[in-house]
Amino acid sequence: MRWLKRLLLAAGSLLLLDWDRQHSARTAALPLLSSGQTDGLVRISVNGMDFRARVAGLGNSGPGLILLHGFPEISAKQTRRGDRT
Question: What phi and psi, each to the nearest 5 degrees, are found at residue 54?
Answer without folding.
Answer: -110, 120
